[in-house]
User: What shape does this take?
Amino acid sequence: MTQSTLIQQALPVDELEKAQQELNDLLATQSETVAPTKDPLTHRDRLIIATIIDSSPDQIKTLWIEGGITVWMQLTDGGRLPFERTWFAARVAQVKATIAEPETPRQRNERLSDELEEVCRKYGLWHSDIDWLSFSTKVFQDGRLVGFVGCNAEGWYSRPRLYGRNQVADTADSAIGCLGVRPVVAA
Assistant: This one.
């Protein structure tokens, strides 16, 4: 039976430090992959805080609560501002109420769709499937194509043919009116 003896060989100090650094780098990379660090403050949060301290949103780095009493704000220039927690919470509530929540694309499409449905009923029209990306559709009256209606950054628009110049309007009602359609009169 043969026996082998394990001989521990000492690495030079430079190689040991290099190996330790590689290990630390690998662990840091793996921890980022598993749990990436994410900025806890949204743009809206920064806007609210900037309004409170009369600053710009890009100057706020982070904030934390210390001892349940003090809210500390870290600024990008290295400065820190302390606030009493209840006062800060009250100010956030006040400012938050004045800053409107941004409308999501889905909410925008639902709002525009509701407006279009209401106007179509008024004019006795129906529309085909809506292209949700460009928010545009064809409108029909008595099975006849009346035109194309949609909404973009300029506002509501309509045109009687596939190709042609858009008539821009402030409302869906005005856009459909530009197609020469008249409201249905109740008998």
